[in-house]
Queue: 2 jobs
Job 1
Amino acid sequence: QVHMVESGGGSVQAGGSLRLSCSASGGTFSNRGMGWFRQAPGKEREFVAAILWSGGGTYYADFVKGRFTISRDDAAKTVYLEMNSLKPEDTDVYYCKREGAGNGYWGQGTQVTVSS
């Protein structure tokens, strides 16, 4: 059974930084793509960033390019999202996803709140 757990969310002022972590248990990790998504109440969940397996590429939504960095530590089965220059519009619940059959495996989400 694959289980994903996000952490690192919180409240920060505009211009600040946060580092999200997502730890995986069960199943494989190093040969799976990983991604971060975010969702506000009443809105569609949207893609933020992804990282392929085994030194593959990284991909970002245009609205986070240059501000957010996704990385992974396969030994620790953890994926990170370093978020800098945060804006109030980055306020959302952030979810990590592990590539897998069907819709993959999702964590429960972590709240990020950016105040102006």
Note: The mean pLDDT is 94.
Job 2
Amino acid sequence: VQLQAFGGGLVQAGGSLRLSCAASGRTFSRYVMGWFRQFPGKEREFVAFISWSGGSTSYADSVKGRFTISRDNAKNTVYLQMNSLKPEDTAVYYCAAGPILSTKEYDHWGQGTLVTVSS
């Protein structure tokens, strides 16, 4: 599966953005989908994942209550709604696809999309 993330941009603190990740192919619903982010000079970190049908989700503590992951299998797309953004959310965000519910086990990655939150 090939993934393409988009929707990043510049937003003021307290604002919202919605990231999208479009997947190619007919097997999208067979994948757990995740979002990750990478700060400058840091390793990529887990943000959220969603199960194959969307019935189960998990979030990093740092985003819990502010971010919401969702998916539309008919559109082969996963979303990350980001509310109450903080300057420390500034990062490159990546979507990923994997076989199991995990914060680490992902086989396919999209290109990153930059989110910048100004104070």
Note: The chain is about 0% helix and 50% strand.
